[in-house]
Amino acid sequence: MPERDPDLIQRMGGPAVIDRLVDELYAEVLLDDRIADFFSGCSVARLAERQRRFLLALLQGPELPADLDLAAAHAPLVARGLNDSHIDALLELMERALAAIGADTSVSTLLLQRLERFRQVVLGVPSTVCGADTEQRSEQAEEERQS
Description:
Low-confidence stretches: 128-138
Shape: globular
Largest sheet: none
């Protein structure tokens, strides 16, 4: 896991930039045919606020607050078919949103890597089963982003 980096939020541009990032992300998500259905009937404002909180915590360091239970929050979506292809789409949209707000490449890469580490948690897969697969996916995703 990455070490705590209290300056990462400032390197990103501060909390206001996180607000812009989340706004840009959800604008993309709601129009994306691959994942938009998962958000129908949801309060986008509430989801965006949770996403902001998650990203701020993620940028502060590897440990998330105990009350951010990603597995429980996403379990209904997994029951509706959320899978790796949807996580791939969301990460692609996050990368686009980062580029759209002009985020520094090194910070964007670090954020995407940290997000990738939560794939198995979101999908409800025990880490002991697919830890190596997740690391390999992270490496593959990074190679694809660089090409």
